[in-house]
Write the structure tokens for this entry.
Amino acid sequence: MTASAAISGGRLRLPATIGVWPLLLALAVLLFLPAAAIIANSFTEPQNAGFSNFSRILSDPTFGRFAYNTVRIAVVVSFFTGLIGYFYAYAIYRSGPAGRSFLMTCALLPLWTSLLVRSFAWTVILRDTGIVNWLLMWVGIVDEPIGMLRTSFAVTVGMIQILLPFTILPIFASMTKFDTTLLLAARSLGASPRRSFWLVFFPATQVGLVAGLMLVFVLSLGYYITPVLLGGPRDQPVAVLIDAQVTTQLDWGAAGAMSAIVTAAVLLMLAAGWRAINKIFLV
Amino acid sequence: MTAKAIKLDNIVKAYGTQKVLHGVGLDVAAGEFVSMLGPSGSGKTTMLKIIAGFEDPDSGSVSIGGRPMTGIVPEHRNIGVVFQNYSLFPHMDVASNIGFPLRMRGMSKAMQKDRISSVLSLVALDGLGARMPNELSGGQQQRVAIARAIVFEPDILLMDEPLGALDRRLRTDMQLEIKALHERLGITIVYVTHDQEEALSMSDRVVVFNKGRIEQVGHPREVYRHPSSLFVADFLGDSLALSAHINGTDIRLPGGLMTAGTQSELPEGAVKLLWRPDQMEVAAPIDAVTLQERRLSVPAKVLTAAYAGTVLRLRVELSTGDIGIVAASDRANIAAGESISLVLDLDEATILPLAASDDIPGARR
């Protein structure tokens, strides 16, 4: 037996009885405990704060503005990732084997690149001397650069590109489960190809779209780097406000309360979309 | 309900380099129930898809009610199709599934409702309109699929192994129901199946497919009792085929025996004499082949004996080396390994030429 076989064959194998406990332990230590500690701050900073942090936050117009920014961006980004993702997934679904792997690679490539790098790349593309402005001026559509950086447009475009795989994948998964004889049935019953698509194919694959939208919306709520790098002052999300509370105001109580509100919103969204997510990812 | 005739003229179809239909021609009369029977890959399902318009033939033409279908898309053919896996729309309830073709034809809601409830009672599913497909049993789903395929009064009804996914008991019930439905509606039905019992029990005519060609067309009794080839004989059920040789009108039998053929138009050369299981008698063991008043007695050995209800199904090997299936009375009490003899009436035999291809699968290409 060779040395590598000995290593891969025996030593690293864990007993089956351990099951998923190591994973749950890691999640507890790395995610649940820190999150709980931060949220606990909202009740304990300052001492015996009770719900005072929450009432303070909820009546503060600054929080309201940042919360509105967060939700607005999440809604717009979800809408466009859903729209583009559905038709991109359909293009993958309808392609031959070679086209499929090409389109799939293109869709997944962003996931293998760091979020920071991708967001920064967009600043390079969208800045006044960037390729977009250069192209617009070269073609003659504009005479001088349009300020695209630090705008809602830049944040939206950047986040759409970054989050697109999260709609493409579940939608494509729902399409591969589609029984194509249903389309033949629809045609034989008198439906044109267009009506077969909208009355049969789309409803049957809608569940993937819902699952993808949920994921994108939830992920958008917690975005930090992309809005900071690409957005203007009116596009800053709650995450930025939380950061400011902790790093400049040293107000852990307010930060904890905001975190608790965002976490609750995320959990509510997940609960609402649980059926769809469950259908796509767990069955 | 209107019934229309179907005319298939010299249909050729290939997928890539693989030819699946080699010039198939067939006339189906208006109101006729025709089964397309054959093993998988014989071209029967492709033929159905071409009639439905899901596939276009490479050459040849389909016409329905005298109207050529070339260039007509499926949604304009007015053909009902029932699929093997039911193909009900999972997100629509039973009523919406059945109403779908009516909706596509722009029928008013009120008229749709009337039609849906009358077709639901036709398939004995009254009151189940609000159910979702996944709340129904397999048999009920198949009834909904049939209801959906006939509710818009199609010119013809195509059924692609519609009972394939049902259990045996339910299948026999549904066979009778489909046959009753056919008699009641008078609609032209083309029914694809690989189950010979199904084809024989339901159809006005059976079309036997083999390797992209029609091997034989005829009334069920005709194709069963008078198969035109060993393939048809074999595919339609159990039989015993005895090797013989024909010279003019002389039939040379095993054991050096000779007899005259009484059938008109005897083939020349190597042949098989074929009997169905019920056409043979099981008798006491004998030593050699004998011929008496055109009844041939052949020594045989029982290879396996299986109890099949009213009969014992015996797989036997004759002293000539031929192997076949014989039905004996279940009171005969014959076991595997026993020696018996078979009495074969030469006038009841079907004489089939032994084409070179018949013994070597895939040789005819």
User: Anything to note?
Assistant: Residues 6-225 of chain B form a domain with the Rossmann fold fold (CATH 3.40.50.300). Chain B touches chain A through 24 residues (CB under 8 Å). The first helix of chain B runs from residue 44 to 52.
